[in-house]
Protein 1
Amino acid sequence: MNDVTTAKAGGTSLPPTRERLIRAAAGLFRNKGYSGTGLAELLAEAGAPKGSLYHHFPSGKSDLALAAADWASGQMLLLIDASFAPAPTFREGAKTVCYKLAKLFDKQGKWSGCPVSATLFEGPENEAFHQHAAHLFEGWITETTRHARRLGLPEPEARAAAENFYILLQGGWQLARVRRDSDVIRGLYLQMQKNN
């Protein structure tokens, strides 16, 4: 998973405004939550003029939140695939996911929340947000289940292993944030061994 900050000028051109808005929102929502992020702050982080938000996202912040969650979820799907594709076993793939997330915590020096839950659960009580979050989490579970089956786990054990992994991961993510300790995420692998 890549850092979700906006691209900076310095020899390379900036991404288009829509992409800058999405990446800025993904980073700010992860770090501050939906409700804790103001529009002025978001526009400044993206380096975008005020009218551009509503040009690209007619419903404003809520449309942008959905797009930011999609983008961040896509980054997580890339991490899942990169972790499980070369793995010889489901446990090794899960261990790699944990280690990559822990490394990301260490590299960024930020104790950010899960990109989907920080964006869509910390926002207003919004049924569309909840349904969208369910859809995105289902995508993570489906992709992980596909790898579990490929690695020899039969159905329904493959799906159960994927669901249990994300249940542990979400709890571990929160505890790592509270403790500011990436070893919590690394330790999830050991917890998985105890449960299997």
Protein 2
Amino acid sequence: MNAIDPADPRPPRRQLADLLRAAILTGKLKPGEKLPSGPELAERYGVSKVTAQQAVNELRTEGLVFSRVGSGVFVKERTSKPVGLRPHLERAFVEPKVTVDFAGFAAETLHGAMSEPLDKIRDGRFRPESIDVRILVPDPGTPWALPARASDLADSPAFRRRMQRIMERHAFGIHDEVLELKRIGLIESASVQIRVYPAAPLFKLYIINRLDAFFGFYPIEEHQLPLDGEDTVMLDLMGKNATLFHLETDQADQDSFKSQFIDQCQRWYESVWKIGRDLQP
């Protein structure tokens, strides 16, 4: 894991949370592994104990870690991981032009998976000329049919407010990190566009360089969490339990199933992108 960068526009809390999150999502920190203590994190990364605790709390809120009383904080077991997504993203960043189209719930997995290739641009191992990212997420200002309260299947404004914070953390984090590479002259062109649309997704989709597609359904599961000071059971879309299926365009056969599937994914994406509204950091 890299050190905190004082020149990075992200606050130290976010930098540390992003580093730890990337280490968890990429398997550097494995399920069941104990995180360094708050004082150890503070000393290792040159931040305050309060900042270290805030970063760990962020991961706990996202369900990536859990606490054992008297023992510390541990990486939570995940039933699945973004199978194949990270290496394919890395392969895309070897190309001169990188495009990533994402549609899903919060862009959390995308944020973690992009951390390593962006780090490799910073240290000179990857040298793409341009990076263009588009992110489609549900509009938290519009009532959702799902997720919903388990008790009455009603929309929860408190849950939408919570999800808005998570969405913005990850989507805006991607925005800031990619555009920072252009600002410091490591890439020639960078664009990160974020749009919201009036529906909650039941699947997640990644289209990489218009050649690779990763597709996975969101299982709907009961999930208890504090909302407005009360423990509330929600029927939630659990992205961490989504298995991703990978298809790659057959450039020798544009009529193959894989090629047609990716073409239809791209057409669907463009149609929803047109009705979305811009979300600015």
